[in-house]
């Protein structure tokens, strides 16, 4: 292999040759990028299920793709299928993919309404009133393959593998909000290790439901600023009060740069580095001192073979929660020091909400778009700056600036942290 195709450690350079994305802003890269850089919000009032009595009544749901309303697995699969179709078309790959599939998918459980409906099928031997036991008994007594697939998030990858002709056992993973970035990291590592020349990396989340909303609300994690919905997500501001739960998906086709060029593929960017660190601080909270996040960013930079001065833009995790935004700021400050105020740092979540399992991949696509177009998407709703967080957040309006390398952060519930470094194609 020519040195032109290798990184600083002699490993294959990883090219991105195809991308696809769906968020509450729309379907496809073109529509999403136009809306995102125009400062448009996809957050809206929830219509999918009743929200009366709930403190949070807004979301970034994807309602323009027709699937059964209460089937989160079917929604997640549909989003993944559509973004993969877009990515493969962009990559110019027809027929079987002939590479491994790494899928980030939400750990979906059946809705309680579905559990009760199925439980009613159980025989009289099950004690009345014990709904969960009746549910299990019904599953044992009367197998229901359709229902079983509807609640098995592992079935998403199997269906994608069959549809797109991937090779080997598809990998399904869930590392909370870092999942999308982790799926990309697995694809990068598979190519670097010489196990394949290409990998299909997909992240999807269609799991917004009343139960999901209630669970996050009980953790005091969601914004309750319902009116107007588009103003609720306000990362790094003084009056931020929680994230806005959302849906979406993204697919990236990864190939060794040598293989991509050999087949005449267009290269949209290079995955230069990946960093991942776990945090043992708490089941849902990240360590307030930012230690694991700091280590994650530094690991990504080291893996990419660049120092802090090489980063021209940071796509922040930026959830709009009081604690997480503060932690991320301290982590970035520890790594970039006095240089941080000169680096633009914006949050896509101010417009699309938090797509949870899909977030890392969705934001990787937008980071690559930043490099390709020379446009920095804004952080909208930035009207009341937090004096304790001194950042150039590209407030409210996009900015034209050519950057050659982007850091994208994904810091998840339970301390699952991942950062990616993406760069322009080598000259």
Automatic annotation (TrEMBL):
One annotated GO biological process: fatty acid biosynthetic process
Keyword Transmembrane helix: no
InterPro entries: Beta-ketoacyl_synthase, Ketoacyl_synth_AS, Ketoacyl_synth_C, Ketoacyl_synth_N, PKS_Beta-ketoAc_synthase_dom, Thiolase-like
Pathway in which the depicted protein is active: Lipid metabolism; fatty acid biosynthesis
GO MF assignments: 3-oxoacyl-[acyl-carrier-protein] synthase activity
Residues of the Ketosynthase family 3 (KS3) domain: 11-424
Listed name of the protein: 3-oxoacyl-ACP synthase
């Amino acid at each position: 292999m020519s040195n032109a195709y290798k990184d600083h450690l002699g490993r294959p350079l990883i090219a991105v040759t195809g991308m696809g994305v769906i968020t509450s802003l729309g379907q496809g890269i073109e529509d999403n990028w136009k809306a995102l850089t125009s400062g448009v919000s996809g957050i809206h009032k929830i219509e999918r299920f009743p929200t009366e009595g709930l403190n949070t009544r807004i979301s970034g749901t994807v309602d323009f793709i027709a699937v059964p309303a209460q089937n989160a697995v079917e929604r997640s699969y549909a989003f993944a299928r559509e973004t993969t179709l877009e990515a493969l078309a962009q990559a110019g790959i027809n027929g079987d993919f002939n590479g491994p599939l790494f899928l980030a998918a939400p750990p979906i459980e059946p809705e309680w309404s579905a559990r009760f409906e199925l439980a009613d099928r159980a025989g009289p031997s099950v004690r009345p009133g014990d709904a969960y036991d009746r549910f299990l008994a019904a599953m044992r007594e009367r197998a229901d393959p359709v229902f079983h697939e509807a609640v098995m998030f592992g079935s998403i990858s199997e269906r994608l593998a069959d549809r797109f002709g991937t090779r080997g056992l598809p990998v399904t993973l869930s590392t909370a909000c870092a999942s999308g970035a982790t799926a990309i990291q697995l694809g990068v590592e598979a190519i670097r290790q010489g196990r394949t020349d290409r990998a299909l990396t997909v992240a999807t989340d269609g799991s917004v439901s009343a139960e999901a909303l209630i669970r996050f609300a009980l953790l005091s994690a969601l914004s309750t600023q319902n009116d107007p919905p588009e103003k609720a997500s306000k990362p790094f501001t003084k009056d931020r009060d929680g994230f806005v739960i959302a849906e979406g998906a993204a697919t990236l086709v990864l190939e060794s740069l040598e293989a991509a060029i050999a087949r005449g593929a267009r290269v949209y960017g290079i995955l230069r580095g990946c960093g991942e660190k776990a945090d043992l601080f708490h089941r849902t909270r990240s360590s307030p001192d930012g230690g694991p996040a700091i280590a994650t960013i530094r690991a990504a930079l080291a893996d990419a073979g660049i120092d802090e001065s090489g980063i021209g833009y940071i796509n922040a995790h930026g959830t709009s929660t009081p604690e997480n935004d503060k932690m991320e700021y301290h982590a970035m400050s520890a790594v970039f020091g006095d240089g941080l105020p000169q680096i633009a740092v914006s949050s896509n979540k101010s417009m699309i909400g938090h797509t949870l399992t899909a977030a890392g991949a969705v934001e990787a696509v937008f980071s690559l778009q930043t490099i390709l177009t020379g446009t920095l998407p804004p952080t909208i709703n930035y009207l009341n700056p937090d004096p304790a967080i001194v950042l150039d957040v590209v407030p409210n309006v996009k900015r034209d600036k050519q950057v050659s390398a982007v850091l994208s952060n994904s810091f998840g519930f339970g301390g699952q942290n991942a950062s990616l470094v993406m760069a322009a194609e080598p000259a």
